[in-house]
Amino acid sequence: MSWPAFLAAVLALPLLGAGAAFHPSVRSESLPARIAAALALGVVALTLTGLALTWASVHWSLAALAAPPLAVSFLLGFSWARRPAAPRRAGHTSPGIALAAAAIAALALVLLFWTLVTGGATSVDYLFFWGVKAARFAAVRGIDTELLRWKYFGHAVPDYPPSVPILQAWGALAAGRLPWRFVPVCSLLWIAAAAPLARALLRRRIPDDAAAAVACFWVAATSITLAQSYSGGNAEAQLLFFETLAVVALLVEDAGASRFLPALMLAGAVLTKVEGAAAAMAIVAGAVLRDALERRRRTLRRALPIVLAPAAALLAWFAFQRHIGLAMGYRSHGTLLGVSARFLPAILGEGMRNLDAGTLWLSWAVPIAFLVAARPDPRRLLPALALIAGLCGFLVFDYMHDTVDPSQRIGWTTPRVSQSALSACILAAGLAWFGREPRGRGISAAAASPPAR
Amino acid sequence: MTPADAGPPARSPRLWLIAAFALCCFPIVARTRLPLDEQLFVPVTPMDRTDGARAEQWAFLEACRAHLPPQPVFTILAEDPDTAMALFMMSIGAYPDSLPLPTTYYGMPMAEIGRQADFVLAYRRLPPPDWNLRLVARVRHGAVYARVPAP
User: Fold this and answer.
1) N or C: which end of chain B has fewer CB within 10 A?
2) Domain residues of chain B, as ranges?
């Protein structure tokens, strides 16, 4: 029985990044929220360590993979713990709302768990390449560079970022082998981990009851769409974790606040999936545009962390590709401008049909209705709106490269790839509906507190 | 925006909670449509409830495992190129210490490569008679064969 050890290894990931829980921008939050930040740092650090060890021809072991993240995390945490934490806004969630939100979120997670554990939401890509890479990496105790270069491994997209296979291989090393049936169940953990931090971030802008309700709706919508899109065992849940937290961190930030958290999350997204890089670009563009339109101070300088962190993560992967003799970068889907509008009606029609998110479009309709009814200043929501527009535009542009009717491919990909856009839509709607206009730009209590960098 | 101490009157979060509960009703309704014995069925493969064909193919690979030595060099034959490709892709992970050789790759015949394998996993078909193989074991939906060394 290998799944308990695999689960223990996955649950230990926050330990590898525990330092993040002591960052001044996170330290005042609840323990589950801080664990989510630690998980993000642990995953990024483990991924980079996996690359570095293979680069240095050092065989992976649990100790070898864990030691560098633990050391870096300890040093960072020690340094951060000595700095003053951003003050936590005093708040109170009504017991009735808290209980209802917790019960509904738990129900959604139980339903997702039941679906995953009974094999009802396993991604076929998990059997075709995500899990395949993980099993092989664990077997050779490193990134199997020969396999990635092998001409009969092209189907397994060797250029895809390495985080998910490295994480699954980490668990497989602990378990002795990859527990194929159990790994998809762990997709649930990303939703469960993201929710407390998303709620903690939301309550910086909206009342506690509202933050609990929005986070609850987010858990319900994402749990159902993960199951409906067969995202068990692939990279979607992990990507959703990173992109959601990057977006919400940027949406709620005050002028001058630390950008440690969104920078970390964007780096994680880039290391998780190709779409993570496209999403990171859209989110960063939205944040920079928002800052410029709101005439926030030092827009360009403040953009540096959220540009450099994902760029550095991407460069690390590309440099590794080059080092092992792979073509550097990502394979394009046809020539860049080789697009045709021939299938545009089918693309739009099939695209809409596949956005039902397992709830007959209700998951989309509710936040869109709140968004429209709230009539918010769209500038405030640009990090989320840019992700939604960027992702939908990217998908349509990609499908327009197809030379045959892309309806079938849309059915395979849209339910999965659109999940981050749904998540951003929910967060934007929650903030728009419950958020309040500032008394004066940049003079909020949080902004007046010592900046934490 | 400031933390919630200014602006218009507070809006009730109850609508969001009701909507969240409404979302949960969709998978509940879908579940209750299934017979109880099907809901309590413990899956044998990761794909039992998502893709019956892949589930059967995965089960075939699992069944063959017991009849292969450590670090086997094998190829897979199947009734059609798509199935052979799927089995080839899955076998790389199912047997992580092995060397699978394709007999077809994305529909392109690679028989000269597949014939170099020591073992042949034949799924729902017989291997070509001129491949000089001996039967190792029959499994559900197929069989495992070993190459007979040339005299």
Assistant:
1) C
2) 52-147
